[in-house]
Specification:
Elements: H1 2-20, H2 23-29, H3 33-43, H4 53-58, H5 64-72, H6 90-94, H7 98-101, H8 106-114, H9 134-142, H10 160-163, H11 168-171, H12 184-192, H13 196-201, E1 206-207, H14 217-220, H15 237-242, E2 271-272, H16 284-287, E3 293-296, E4 302-305, E5 307-308, E6 311-312
Antiparallel strand pairs: 1-2, 3-4, 5-6
This protein binds heme C (9 copies).
């Protein structure tokens, strides 16, 4: 939050200086320091050198498990073309490590181990990844997974997560296992950890079968930023829905005006207390836009459709093709009764 305020402040300053001073003066007198400071944070300690993973780990075996996982992962398996050396190694993210292992000798480690004490490397000289502001954390990953080169990161920078200081680290734990993929099943738990309202909605009596493992957050949302209001996978809500409900796509000979263009006119996307994910119970759902009507009984007289024998009834008991139909009703109009 703080850094966003700081950035906004800086932007305001920039605007004021531009208006009052002009560009040349700005370049000379006010170097874009925040960016340079960013770079310094990301590069790490300027006095340290890169020493390679082997030298890091030779000094101490504490990180064997991490290394085993990492080597078995897609990232760890990438080799540089010319040298055959690892393309991504510990120092790619943690910064140059020479200072961290400078004072570690095998003798010291062995002596400490004999006393039952672990020998920490001087990790304070490495990049303090956890303390970086969220955009800087993401830059660590984006230097390789650039938004241009990675298909699913095209919308990252403008995406709601990036804008709200959620970083790659929040969702990707590169050390948790050799498998770097976030499986759809795991994504549910991950997303719930920040989106409690959504978790609550998926617990309502009528809900998309997410907990049942048949629908996933990432079916509808792109966590790296997407189109429209809620980072949807498709341009519109409707397109997102008809991926899995193609029979609602149409076009139909008799459309329900343009009402069905927007599924959320009648449905909640996550969950609802009303059956079929409806935003209101029938007949009230329909009575928001229509008046009820009477129907002639075969034996004579009329009953109120929607409110019969003291009970509210469902309009869709008769208007069952509410999403549109190709079949005309008895009057030859499209009234969704078949
Ligand atoms: C792709 C980037 C990346 C690479 C490569 C990487 N790390 Fe990490 N490492 C991280 C991140 C991110 C964290 C978590 C920082 C935080 O606390 O938010 C981390 C945390 C750690 C920690 C802290 C303890 C822990 O488990 O959280 C250790 C130790 C560590 N890494 C060692 C290594 C070693 C050894 C290697 C090489 C085998 C390595 N890392 C390679 C990104 C990376
Ligand atoms: C030094 C370059 C480099 C850095 C830094 C880096 N990566 Fe990677 N990463 C790669 C390469 C190369 C691959 C394997 C090729 C690929 O799948 O794109 C990869 C693979 C991955 C994969 C698995 C893709 C798959 O399909 O299995 C994930 C997830 C990933 N990286 C996340 C991250 C995260 C999160 C960070 C930041 C903490 C990060 N990477 C930092 C180079 C890098
Ligand atoms: C809000 C959580 C979240 C954030 C933030 C996030 N990711 Fe992801 N990422 C996911 C999920 C979930 C998947 C798997 C589903 C998918 O492909 O959409 C994924 C997939 C990936 C993949 C493809 C490998 C795979 O599992 O299919 C890469 C590479 C990747 N992310 C890199 C990044 C990088 C780099 C950043 C930061 C710029 C980032 N992600 C930020 C949740 C996130
Ligand atoms: C580290 C916390 C965190 C995690 C994990 C996380 N999000 Fe978010 N998400 C946020 C924040 C913060 C916002 C912006 C504020 C808001 O709208 O709640 C946001 C916004 C969103 C929005 C847009 C809401 C809107 O009003 O437009 C969607 C959709 C979303 N997240 C989906 C996901 C999905 C899917 C996952 C799992 C792959 C996920 N998030 C994981 C923190 C998180
Ligand atoms: C069946 C598709 C679908 C699934 C699955 C889904 N969403 Fe949504 N979600 C939507 C749609 C559509 C909206 C837009 C609602 C609107 O515009 O009013 C939305 C809105 C949101 C919002 C912003 C509005 C709000 O309700 O706060 C968040 C956050 C969100 N979803 C998170 C999640 C998370 C987290 C998951 C997984 C646990 C998830 N969604 C699963 C379709 C889905
Ligand atoms: C990833 C596929 C997928 C997407 C996308 C999707 N649905 Fe579903 N939907 C399902 C599944 C699976 C069911 C459960 C069907 C069953 O139980 O037979 C379901 C059930 C429903 C139900 C009936 C619920 C009930 O209680 O019977 C409604 C209504 C519905 N979806 C509306 C929508 C709307 C509106 C959207 C867009 C916001 C949408 N769906 C997007 C897969 C999806
Ligand atoms: C005018 C209100 C309305 C709109 C708009 C609407 N629906 Fe429905 N939908 C309903 C009603 C009412 C039911 C329950 C019908 C029943 O119980 O027989 C229903 C049921 C469903 C069902 C479950 C039963 C079935 O027929 O398969 C799905 C799936 C569904 N709708 C998807 C969608 C999708 C996708 C959209 C957007 C393209 C959409 N709906 C737009 C009113 C609407
Ligand atoms: C968001 C408003 C809205 C909702 C909710 C809605 N409708 Fe409609 N409906 C319309 C509009 C607009 C039309 C087309 C204009 C017209 O002819 O009255 C229409 C047309 C119809 C028609 C054809 C009317 C004719 O004269 O041909 C029927 C039948 C109908 N709706 C039934 C229903 C039923 C049943 C429900 C509840 C499941 C419902 N509608 C929910 C807005 C709505
Ligand atoms: C018992 C069956 C039945 C029920 C229940 C029912 N309708 Fe109808 N509705 C019809 C029939 C039959 C027509 C005439 C169809 C035709 O024109 O061929 C009709 C026509 C309509 C029309 C077209 C305009 C008009 O007045 O002629 C609308 C709008 C409509 N119904 C809305 C509703 C709504 C809203 C509800 C729930 C409150 C509802 N209906 C409940 C059978 C029913």
């Amino acid at each position: 939050m703080l850094s966003r305020v700081a950035r906004q402040g800086f932007f305001m300053l920039l605007v004021i200086v531009l208006v009052s001073g002009g560009c040349d003066k700005l370049k000379g007198e006010r170097p874009l320091r925040p960016i340079r400071e960013y770079e310094k944070m990301i590069v790490g300690n300027l006095y340290a050198d890169y020493v390679g993973t082997r030298n890091c780990l030779a000094a101490c075996h504490e990180h064997d498990r991490l290394k085993l996982f990492f080597d078995a992962s897609t990232m760890g398996a990438q080799l540089k073309k010319g040298s055959g050396m690892p393309l991504v190694d510990c120092e790619s993210c943690h910064g140059p490590g020479s200072l961290a292992v400078r004072d570690l000798t095998p003798d010291l480690v062995a002596a400490n181990a004999a006393k039952g004490v672990k020998t920490p490397c001087d990790f304070k000289t490495l990049i303090d990844l956890a303390a970086l502001p969220a955009p800087a954390q993401s830059l660590i990953c984006l230097k390789c997974h650039s938004a241009n080169a990675t298909f699913n990161l095209h919308n990252w920078n403008a995406g709601i997560h990036a804008v709200n200081e959620v970083s790659c680290f929040d969702c990707h734990d590169v050390h948790s296992s050799p498998d770097l993929k976030v499986t759809p099943l795991a994504s549910g738990r991950l997303c719930f950890s920040c989106h409690e309202a959504a978790q609550m909605e998926f617990s309502l009596s009528s809900h998309h079968p997410l907990k049942e493992g048949r629908v996933f957050c990432v079916d509808c949302h792109d966590p790296h930023g997407g189109f429209g209001e809620s980072s949807l996978q498709k341009d519109t809500v409707r397109e997102t829905c008809v991926q899995c409900h193609p029979e609602k796509r149409g076009p139909f000979l008799y459309e329900h005006a343009d009402v069905v263009e927007e599924c959320l006119n009648c449905h909640a996307p996550h969950g609802s207390v009303n059956q079929r994910l409806l935003v209101a119970r029938e007949p009230f759902l329909c009575l928001r836009c229509h008046e009820g009507h009477f129907i002639n009984k075969p034996e004579g007289g009329a009953i109120s459709a929607g409110y019969a024998r003291g009970l509210y009834t469902r309009c869709t008991d008769c208007h069952s093709r509410i999403h549109g139909t190709d079949v005309p009703s008895s009057s030859g109009r499209g009234r969704f009764t078949q």
